[in-house]
Amino acid sequence: MTADHARLAADPELAPLWQAIHDRLSAGSAPADIATVTVPGLEPGAVAALKAWLDTPTQRRRGRTRVPHTERGAKVPLPPLMSALGLTTDTLQALVEDAVGRAVVNRRNGRLAAAALRQELVRYADEQLPQLPRLRIRLTSGAAEETAPEMRRLIDALASITRNLPHTPPRTLAKLAHDHAGDPHYFDPATSPGQRLITALAELAGRPEPTRPDHIRALLASHGIIADRLSATVLLHQVTALGDGPIDRRLNEATTPVALNLLDLTHTPPRLAPHPLTVVENPSVLEAAMERDSSQPIACTSGQLRAVDHALLQLAVDQGVPLRYAGDLDAAGLHIAATVQQTYGAELVAMDSTVVHAAGDVPSAIPLGPLPSNCDPALAKHLRAAGRVLYQEHDAVLTHLLDLDPALRKPPNPAPRQEGE
């Protein structure tokens, strides 16, 4: 680029012109195919310079111009401009790139390349996953060049893991992910590949995609895939069991909260006594129960609804155990409470306007935030008046939860039978 062209590129009044040409070149137009460019925002000095370069003396005498003004901006003929400034196709692109500060990237070529790449991925997915048409559409829509290698890896892994279903004997999800994708966490349900595996299995089974954690695990199990059932636990305190299995014995012999995992609740589930079971959100409630020597049967989900929590709640329903649920009075706590109430018929306790009133004007330092649309109107009114979250650690909540009617407390365990009785 010559010194004169460099000065033109650096002229701030001509910046809108170079930007407009840069945009046209980036859209895929070749300089020879651009008859005119419309340039908004040109300063009068720039328009005067363009007219000086492009208008003939005759046009000036007759009041005509090759740079007419339109509603969208000044209309500049590109071939005459290139001729007047001594620009070639190459030097024009160099000038506008220097003026704008970034390279011209032909987006049309990029779109064509993306379309070709998508067609290649569609063909590959058709070959590897012929039995999963709905999944193939989801996998290949919007594929980009930078994701193509990872997409092929996902297609290969899905094809491999679904080739011989169900897996016999059942294998853990981590082991299958390691063997089929080289990464034990590749198909974790919370990841994108994990969600695609769930989609594949649901399509193969002819079922809607599950969303609840326990339903996802059931879908995996039906294909011989065991999701992690050991690490997540639910806590039970003062819960009596009537059976003679290993979990029943643990519950009956425990003096502190017992942590049960999903395997405990599904492989050797306890037979629960039909005493009302209060399910709480936070482990601190169990600490308070131990401090007060409460004999009330309590379970704790640790503020979540995971597969292990659903397993306990369903076990209680199946065995006729009355359920009560209590959570924090914030958006997340109210949402979980509504799910437990609607799904398992639990009675909500310590989650009404009475306990909010008992907590006083400033129940915590945390602003309330939006409430779920299905929140009880009376409760919502009292919460908004306070403007703060009410947590289960508040004395008003703990008193309401733990100083219950004696009828809700667990009766003493029966004395062990003596030999010969």
Task: Note down, in words, how this protein is organized.
The chain is an alpha/beta fold. The chain is 49% helix and 9% strand. It has 20 helices and 11 strands. A 6-stranded mixed β-sheet has the order 7-6-9-8-10-11, with helices on both faces. Strands 1-3-2 form a 3-stranded antiparallel β-sheet. Strands 4-5 form a two-stranded parallel sheet. Helix 15 links the parallel strand 8 and strand 9. The protein starts with a helix and ends in a 19-residue tail after the last helix.
Q: How much beta, percentage-wise?
A: 5-15%
Major sheet strand order? 7-6-9-8-10-11
Span from first to last CA? 108 Å
Number of strand elements = 11
Helix content class: 40-55%
pLDDT < 50 runs, ≥5 residues: 415-421
What is the residue-averaged pLDDT? 89
Please give the largest β-sheet. Answer: 6 strands, mixed
Please state the overall shape, judged from the principal axes of the Cα atoms. elongated
Structural class call reads: alpha/beta
* Rg, Å, rounded: 35 Å
Number of separate helices:
20
Brief overview:
The chain is α/β, with parallel strands linked by helices and about 425 residues long.
